[in-house]
Structure formats: structure tokens, C-alpha cells
Amino acid sequence: MKKNLKYNAIWLGIAVLGWVLINVFEGVGIIDQFAENTLVLIGINIILATGLNLIIGFSGQFSLGHAGFMALGAYAAALVTQAIPTEGGFVLGTVIGMLLAGVVALIIGIPTLRLKGDYLAIATMGAAEIIRIILVNLKITNGPAGLYGLPQLANWSLVYILVVVTTIFTVNFIHSRNGRAILSVREDEIAAESMGINTTKFKVAAFVFGGMTAAIGGALHANYIQTIAPNDFGIMESINILIIVVMGGIGSMTGTFAAAALLGILDMILQGFGALRMVLYSLALILIMIFRPKGLLGTWEFSVKRLFNRNKKKAKEGA
Amino acid sequence: MQILQQLINGLSLGSIYALLALGYTMVYGIIKLINFAHGDVYMLGAFWGYYMINTFHVGFWTALILSMIFCAIIGVIVEFLAYRPLRDSPRIVVLITAIGVSFLLENGMSYLFSSSPRDFPQAMVMHRYHLGSLSISNVQVLILVTSIVLMILLQLIIKRTRMGKAMRAVSVDPEAAQLIGINVDHTISFTFALGSALAGAAGVMIGLYYNSIDPLMGMTPGIKAFVAAVLGGIGLIPGAALGGFVIGLVETAVQAMGFSAFRDAAVYAILIVILIIRPAGILGKTTREKV
Amino acid sequence: MKKMKIATLAATAMMLAAVFTGCANKAGTSGNSASGDTITIGGNFELSGAAAAYGSAMQRGVKLAVTKINKDGGVKVGDKKMKLKLVTKDNKSDNASAASIATNLTTQTKASAVIGPITSGAGLAALPNMTKAKVPLITPGGTQDSLTLQKNGKVQPYMFRSCFEDSFQGKALAKYVYNTMKLKNVAILGDKSTDYAQGLIKAFKGEYKGKIVTTEYYQAGDKDFNTLLTKLKSKNYDAIFVPGYYSEAGLIIRQAREMGIDKPIVGADGFADPKLVSIAGKSNASNIYYTTHFDAKAPANNKVADYLKLYKDTYGDDAGTFDALSYDAVYMIKQAIETEKSTNSVKIAEGLAKLKNFQGVTGTITMDKYHNPQKPVIVTKLMDGTEAEATAVK
Question: Which of A3, B283, C2, C125 is deepest in the core (most CB within 10 A)?
């Protein structure tokens, strides 16, 4: 227990250092507004993808409906911040969005998570589409035009902090007793079940947790871009998040970070290529998958603990 | 009377989904890959037919056959370049590659041939048959008949021919199939050729029917056809046809009842409900894992 | 475990507090100006994705205008002639990407003015970043009423459009159908997935004095309308109003006519593209009415014929609405630069707001105080795929 606290503290230290560093870069002018913009979009994608990675990579459930939960978070935050355009409003909106996403994930998850593989994928995709169509048809969400003129309450620091927080929570969740139960479901559902693990419960738990983090991503998206419309949360958005997870390496949080950053930068560079943009993007996607089928980093995980222990070992050997 | 006409409309729409779902389900049945690019191969088929008819002034049936051949070749090439290197990778990785191929085909075609819609040459004169207040066009009948004929033909190929046997063997256990002398690569190539040829035929027929083709035309029907295949029980030929007709009829019914804004939501809701009741689709058999 | 969580929460709370209090707004800029002899115009275009057909039309119109202006000698700034340079970025029909490109074009490219995106949603997403950089944005297709308005009802200083706003067009159509065509019952078949169609429906319903028999919806990208049309067929109405774009409207016309529905079909400027007739088929495209910005038969000025010819010569295709509106957008910027005698983006925005009696291809334009172009609406009637008559609506 104490050990975990130590590693978490180290992580937090690294995170704070990174925050200071970006701030300094910004002050000096190395990071300009456009780069900052890119950083924010990467950050939001990391939040979305870590949640999906938890569902796909760690609990082994193939979900294709992540954008649905993102939409719930985005709309909740947007509606609340329209009424209360303050930081408090944002926090309230995000929390409401997370709860909403959690409840909806529970409702969707309990019946559908009995499904396997591609059947689950298509069911979750369908659920996300139903959410989107409801958003198109509701009055309060302003139909296909969506909500706009939202206050810009999310900035890069906030995104950064929430990336750190969700990652720390997700990683700790994975390493907790419950998390290990979830991993066992991925490895062998039948074996896990015979060990007395309630597999459905843990699958649903991962699904709900992932859905709630997606809501955070959605809330940040809404209050950074300041405009949301149902079409922002279609099947293509779910697929984009899925691409990050698979490209980074299913089950590798470090990989998710790397892939989100790589794709974010690629996206930024390709903006100037006109109609060729998506052609180059798809080529890059195919080539990366063919040459690195296990993802950029496979299942490799950057770990302070390992680094720490290795140093300790070395020190011991040296002594 | 209106109900009967709507039934015809539903069947006609359903036959289009069924036609596309057949190709989806074939590939899935053999190598368990959701070939996301299937809808885009269908788009390529429509464009190939368009150029054949416009440039070489070939007739409708010639264009149809040329398109099927062209798409079969494309299917084999895509499989060879993009999927074969990943034969031993997790399925989700191949799925992402398939999504990449789909993006590439859509955007490559937009880049080369512009993304605005174009009208498909009327290589076959449209007739309408009337029976009282009911009406159906010859192209609608053509699509309906073709999808049923193709379904039967596919079923025969898979059940009766040597290649079909090989396909079934590969689908059950590729390694064991190899051990008994089946060339797995050839079998999979053949599957892709067959599935893509179906998409090519669909492209020309649907292009003719709606008279409008564009590089993104495969996206929505592709997803709907996939849903149809899953609904019927993915991997099963009759399942794909059944799923296609069910979705066509559901869409029509929802619109006819006045909930047109919720059409797609209803389709997905029915999909989820059916999957909860029958986790492997309408015709699918749930295999119990033995320990 | 608990301790860890508390520690994390505490640290988070502290950092959150730091963020919310510490980050004051940075000093405002004074906009972008041209450096050297070229004025940079940014293009935030939908070149891939769902709106690519409309975005690439926008690109063609803008390119045509920039080439023509440069060939004619350039833009007169005071007593200096300057050339235009177009920098294009693809926003892949994605709102977040449109916002990112707005920053890219204003801070990296240092564009003096930006054209696009073409959809209202993407325009709204791009706007905050444009306002931050104080660079004007002209959208050739963002028709949503509130696009140019702030929350408090004041005008958005950096948002302009060259197209009609939805309510203007919707109301004009409602009046035309009721007063001129004298039709008292209308069925609506509208696109549920775009705000364009929704805005038109709302305006039409508000203004139309007759009876709306039924309202049915489709989704952009649909190809089969037989079900909805079969349903309409049995109803009693005088005309069908189809708010939507030509890709779907062409198919609706075709399928309706094949089914034997010969009632008038009415649409907005989303119809105004040669593709409408080619998709519907010439013989089917009869008794079709739609609003348009320019009309070859009753040209607002002599620029129309020139434009149609120039477009045809350059691209080998017939011009449509979106390319013409984009073409005008470039000339509106040129006009603003010339009247203000400055290439500074803040000045250009001021010039655009003051635009008066500007002779464009899509009509004689005067900007109203909400940055909506005031120009006459023309309703065109198609018979056998060609324009039979054109009437101006007040």
C-alpha cells in the first residue's frame, strides 16, 4: 500500500514537472497557440483512448460505441455551462455527464456484455448510434445544429491535469484487486468464472469506468471547441478512438499515449495537404498496422516501479 | 393497398442490403474478418461500371460482368497486400487495417474523381409494372431476383464444390486444413474474389437503380449491410439475406408509421434486442465452450 | 489505497485552483497584415469527409477568383497593387479540425482573411479562434441564423457570410408558395441530419399561412425514398417542400416522378446545382421550384454570364451555387481591402461590414448590421431540366 503511494507520488511529480516544462516552453514561445491547440486535442484523445483501452485491452471486450459516452459528457457539460458559465459549472456539468454516462453504460452493459466479440462490437455501435439519434431529435440539445457559443472553460492546463488524473485512476484501478479480476476475465473467462469471479460484474465495471472517462473527454471537447453537434459523435469518432488504442498496442497505456501523440501530430502536419490529407492518413494507418501489428509499443509499459527497482538492484550489486 | 406497396418497397430495399451483406458474411465466415472495405469495393464496382458504359459503351450485362471481374481482382489484391501480412495477428488489428483500406479507397477516389455525385448512365431502360395501385420497376425486380439467385448459388458453391469444401475446412481450422493439403492462401484469395465480385455486381445494379454514384456511397450501406449480416447470424449465407430483408422491412415499417426521424435508431434497437435474445443472430447457433 | 486517493484528489484540487486562478487572458493581438507584396487568404475547406462535395466546390470558386484577380493585376491597396496568395487546408468535414485550422491559418500562415468552412457547424467551431486572432471569416454556405450573432444578440465582429441565412430563404419560399403559386397545402420532406434543413423548416413553418399536411424526415446520404413517397402519395397536398441538398433532392425528384407524383417540388438554394438535374434525369425535373442566388436568364448584372463562361472554360463543368458564393467571397475581401486601403485583418473586417452595393455574381450585395448579405431572392422554375422562368421574391 505504502509502496503504491510512493510510485503514485513519483508519477505525480513527473506530471507536475511536465506541466511546468510546457508552461516554460509556452512562455519562451516554443509552443505557440497552434501547437497548444494540437496538445489539447491530443490530451482529449488520450483521455478517451485510455478509457477504451481499459474496456478493450484490459477487460477484453470489443466496444465500438465510445463516442456515445463522449457525447453524453459533452452535452451534459455544454448544457450546464450554458446556464452556469463558470468553472464550477464546468465541474458540475462534467460530474453530471460522468454519472449519466455511467448509468447509461450500466444499462447498455448489463444485457450486451453477455455477447461475444464482434456481436458485442456491433451492439455497442448500435447503442452509440441510438444515443446520437436521440440527440438529433431532442429539443433541449437543439437538434442537428447542436449547441454553440459555449464558454471556453477548458484550456490546456485543465486538459493536462485531467489526463494525469484519469490515467492515474485508470492505472491504479487496473492494479487493484478489482483490476486483476478484470485482467483474468480477459485472459480466460471460463477459468476466471471457475475461480469464483463474477465475470459479468467486472466486465460491466470496466465498461462503466471507461464510459465515465469518455464523458470527461467529451466535456473537455465541448468546452474547448465551444461547439458540439451530434455528428461529432458518430461511428467515425468511435473508430478514431479505436484506432488510437490498437495502434498504441492493446493493453498498453504508454502505447495509447504514444499513438495519440503520433496521430495528433500527423493530423496537424497533414492539414496542409488539401484533398490528399485523408489519403496519406489512411496509407500511414495501413503501413503502421502492417509493420507494427502489435501496436507501436506492443504491451510494453513504461513503469517507474521497474526503473526504480532496477536502480535499486544495481545499487545493491554495486555495494 | 398502401401496405402492400410498402411491403414491396421494403423488400426492394432489403434486397440491396442483402446483396451487400452476402459479401460481408462470406469473408467473415471464412477468416472471421469484418471486411470494413467491402462497402468501398461496392463503390469501386459502381465507378468501374460507370466508366465502362460511358467510355466503351458496353451494354448493361457486359458492364456487370466486367465490374465483377474488376472487383474480384481488387479484392484479391487488397487481401494480398493488406490482410495477408497480418494473418497471424489479432483480429482487431486486421479490422483496423480494413478500416484503413476503406479510408484509402474512399479518399483516393475522391481525390482522383472528385467527391461530387454523378449520374449513372441509363444502360437499361426503366419500366414500371403496375397491378392496380401497386407498382414495381424492372430494376427492382432485377435486384431482388439477383440477390436471391446469388444466395442460392453461393450456398451451392460452399456446400457442393471442392473449393467450397476447402473454404469450410479453412473456416473451421486453417492449420488442419493445411495439413490435409488445402492451399489456405488460395482458398482465402478465392473467398475474397467471390465476395468482392458480389460487391461489384451490387455496385452496378444499385448505381443503375438510384442513378447516383459518389466515392462515399459505400459508407452507410456498408455499415447497414454489416448490421444485416450480424443480425442474420454472421458467417451464414442465408442469414445475410434474411438480415438484409429484415432491416429493409424494419426501415420501411418505421418510416411508414411516421417515425422517419427515428428510422436508424429503430434498426439498432431491434438489432440489440435480437442479439440479447439470440446472441449469435437469428440463424446463428451459439456454441457452448466446453471446459 | 484510500490515502492514495485522498492524496491524488488533494493534489488535483490544488492544481485545478492554480489553473483557474493563474491563467489570465494573454494580451490581444492587432490582427494580421500582409507582409511584402502578397496578401494571404486562408482556405478552411472541407476537402475530404462527408461535406467534401460542397467543400471542393468552394475550393474551385475561391481558386478561380484568386487566379482571376491576380491576372487582372491584383488588389489595389492605396496606390500599390498587391497579389493574392491562397493557402488551403483540409478540415476533413470535422468541427474540431476546422477549429484547429482556424488557429493554423491565423497564427502560422498569418492570413489576412479566411474563407470557409462551408457548413454552419464547422464555422461555429472555427469562429472562437478567428475572433481571438481578429481575422474575418467568410462562409459561403453557413446559413444558420445565429451564426453571426453573439449570445447577447450583438453581431459577431469577425463572422460574415456570402449566402442567405435560413430564415430569410425559408420565409421567402413560404411567401412564394402561398402568394405566388397560390398553394394552400404543403407536405414537407426534410433532411433530419443537417441544421440547414432544420433552419429552413422552422422558418417555412413560421411564415407559411396554408396548411402543413405532414412532415417526414430523411438522413443525408439516403438513397431510397420510395417508402416516404408512397406515404405522401395518398395524402392530400398541393406541393412538396424539400429542404435539403441536391444529392438527395435529385433522387427524391426522380423517385417521386417515377412513382407518378407530379405535384410541384419546392426547394431552397441547396437545389441550385447542375447535378440536381443530372441525378433526377431531365424528363423528371419538371415542375421544380427553388430559390437561387443567380440566374442565367435574369442576370442581376453582366458578371453572371462571364462567370459561367469562365467556370466552364476552367473546369469543363457547369457552375453551381457554392462555387459562385465562394467566388464572391474572395471579391468581397478584395473590395474590403480596397475601400479600407489596408491589408490588416481588423480593417478588412470593418470593410466587410460596410460593404454596400457590391456587384457580385450572386447579386448586388449590401451587408446588413448582422453581417448577412442583403440581396434579392430569385425563384427558378425548372421544366424538363431547364429553367423555364425566374421570379424575384421580395
Answer: C125
Higher pLDDT, B84 or C295: B84
Q: Name which of B27, B32, B96, B290 to mutate to probe chain A: the one with the most chain A Cβ atoms within 10 A of its Cβ.
A: B96
pLDDT in tens, C147-196: 999 888 899 999 999 999 999 999 999 999 999 999 999 999 999 988 89
Chain A residue with minimum CA distance to C192 = A144
| Domain pair C38-164+301-375 / C167-292, same fold | yes
- How far does C388 lie from chain A, in Å, by closest CA? 35
Is the CB of C216 inside 8 Å of chain B's CB atoms? yes
- Rounded to 5 degrees, what are φ and ψ at C114? -125, 140
**What nine digits make up the cell of A154?**
477548458
pLDDT digits (tens, 9 = 90+) for B264-278: 999 999 999 999 998
Give the total number of structural domains in chain B. 1
The domain that holds B53 is classified in CATH as: 1.10.3470
User: Is B285 inside any structural domain?
Assistant: no
> Does residue B286 belong to any structural domain of this protein?
no
In a domain, B288, yes or no: no
Tens-place pLDDT, residues C203-250: 999 999 999 999 999 998 899 999 999 999 889 999 999 999 999 999
Chain B residues with CB under 8 Å of C216 CB are 255, 258, 260
The 10s digit of each residue's pLDDT in A217-239 is: 999 999 999 999 999 999 999 99
Q: Read off the pLDDT of each residue in A170-179 and give the average, rounded to a whole number.
A: 87
Beta bridge partners of C365: C358
Cell output for B177: 486444413
Residues of C with Cβ-Cβ distance to A168 under 8 angstroms: 8
d(CA B171, CA B79): 16
For residue A281, being part of any structural domain is answered with no
**C91 and C122 Cβ atoms separated by less than 8 Å:** yes
CA distance B284 to chain A (A): 11
Q: Choose the closest CB to C52 out of B6, B110, B210.
A: B110
Domain layout of chain C by residue ranges: 38-164+301-375, 167-292
Triad C387, C392, C394: Cα angle to 5°: 155
| ipTM (interface pTM) | 0.90
Q: Is the pLDDT of residue A199 over 90?
A: no
Question: Where do the H-state alpha helices sit in chain A?
Answer: 2-28, 33-53, 66-83, 87-112, 117-137, 156-175, 177-187, 189-194, 199-225, 235-248, 253-270, 277-291, 304-318
**Number of neighbouring beta carbons within 10 Å of residue A4:** 15
> Residue B260: is its pLDDT beyond 80?
yes
- Neighbors of chain C by Cβ distance (3+ pairs < 8 Å): A, B
Please report the pLDDT score of residue B187 as a whole number.
Answer: 93
**A225 — contact with chain C (CB < 8 Å)?**
yes
Closest CA to B137 of B5, B3, B49: B5
By C-alpha distance, the chain A residue nearest C42 is: A272
Establish if A12 touches chain C: CB-CB under 8 angstroms: yes
Chain B residue numbers with beta carbons less than 8 Å from the beta carbon of A239 are: 99
Q: In this structure, is residue B155 part of a structural domain?
A: yes
Put simply, the answer to whether C221 touches B220 (Cβ < 8 Å) is yes
From 3.30.420.270, 3.40.50.150, 3.40.50.2300, 3.40.50.10470, which CATH number describes the C38-164+301-375 domain?
A: 3.40.50.2300
Q: A105: domain range?
A: 39-233
| C167-292 CATH choice from 3.40.50.2300, 3.40.50.1860, 1.10.8.470, 3.40.50.20 | 3.40.50.2300
Q: Which residue from B5, B116, B214 is facing C230, i.e. has the nearest CB?
A: B5
The tally of domains found in chain A comes to: 1
Chain A residue numbers with beta carbons less than 8 Å from the beta carbon of C130 are none
Say if A117 falls within a structural domain: yes
- The arithmetic mean of pLDDT across residues A159-184, rounded, is 89
Task: Return the residue of C nearest to B6 by Cα.
Answer: C227
pLDDT, chain C, mean: 88
For residue C219, the chain B residues in CB contact (below 8 A) are: 263-264
Distance from CA of B41 to the nearest CA of C (A): 18
How far is A274 from A171, CA to CA, in rounded Å? 39
State how beta strands C358-360 and C363-367 pair.
Answer: antiparallel
